[in-house]
Amino acid sequence: MNHDCSPFAADCAVRSATDLIAHTWDPVVLMALRAGRRRRNDLLDAIAGVSDKVLTQTLRRLHTNGLIARIAAPADRSVTYELSGLGRSLADGPLAALGHWAVEHADQLLAAQENPGRPPQDTTSLPRKCRNARAKSTSA
């Protein structure tokens, strides 16, 4: 695989990495498994909005990509899932950073979604507490 390539190239590492989280529920399931090994029904209970069918497809896709391990216990026929080393490196690294970024910019994201076409006010230099106060004062 070419590591110094255009992101438009089919074999680009950036495209390959993006494909790993392109499905809506993949990052959510990976983050849910950060806490440790879980059964499928535990994941269904923990992740609001995901259907049984979609969770099953997501678990299969993540397993096929080597991001999670499927552990079958023959004694009681139970199956659990946990992050593989590769999956943990993705969840604890780039996905965690993306989550922090989303929290840090939540106000701007919400403002952009509520006012499409109008650039949101840049408040990134203010502490989060000040940004929240400013958002409340401008909406009043």
Q: Helix segment count?
A: 7
Low-confidence stretches: none
CATH class label of the largest domain? Mainly Alpha
Number of domains: 2
CATH 2nd-level architecture of the largest domain: Orthogonal Bundle
Strand content: 5-15%
Distance between the termini: 53 Å
Percentage of residues in helical conformation: 40-55%
What is the H/E string? HHEHHEEHHH
CATH topology of the largest domain: Arc Repressor Mutant, subunit A
Oligomer: single chain
Coarse morphology: globular
Summed up:
The chain is mostly helical. It is built from seven helices and three strands.
Q: How would you describe this protein?
A:
The chain is mainly alpha-helical. It folds into two domains: 100 residues, Winged helix-like DNA-binding domain superfamily/Winged helix DNA-binding domain (Arc Repressor Mutant, subunit A, Orthogonal Bundle); 36 residues, no CATH class. It has seven helices and three strands; from the N terminus they run H-H-E-H-H-E-E-H-H-H. Strands 1-3-2 form a three-stranded antiparallel β-sheet. It is globular, with a radius of gyration of 19 Å. The mean pLDDT is 84.
Give the topology.
Elements: H1 13-20, H2 26-32, E1 38-39, H3 40-46, H4 52-64, E2 68-73, E3 78-83, H5 85-104, H6 106-114, H7 128-139
Antiparallel strand pairs: 1-3, 2-3
Looking at this protein, list some descriptive labels:
mainly alpha, 3-stranded antiparallel sheet, Arc Repressor Mutant, subunit A, 2 domains, 140 residues, 3 strands
